Amino acid sequence: MSQDDGPNNAYWQANLRLIYISLAIWALVSFGFGIVLRPMLSGIALGGADIGFWFAQQGSILVFLALIFFYAWRMNRLDREHGVDED
Predict the structure, then answer these.
(1) What is the rounded CA–CA span in Å between residue 51 and residue 37?
(2) Mind listing the pLDDT tens digit for each residue in 30-52?
(3) How far apart, in whole angstroms, are the C-alpha atoms of residue 12 and residue 53?
(4) Are 45 and 51 in contact (CB under 8 A)?
């Protein structure tokens, strides 16, 4: 198989792009906002605590859950676009 295998290649490229974007968002929120950028975010309050602490404790979990639902929704749409859905 070559790199230009048509629809299958386009489907997997879109799938991998979606995975990479989701992983980048997750890493930014959990590692970036919760650990690396926490000192810069210490002046912003959210629910009685600084926003860096909030991201480290529950914000990254909520973003992770949102990414799971977004990925499922987007993959269902991508499956329909490429004719590989299970309906």
Answers:
(1) 10
(2) 888 888 988 888 888 888 888 88
(3) 37
(4) yes
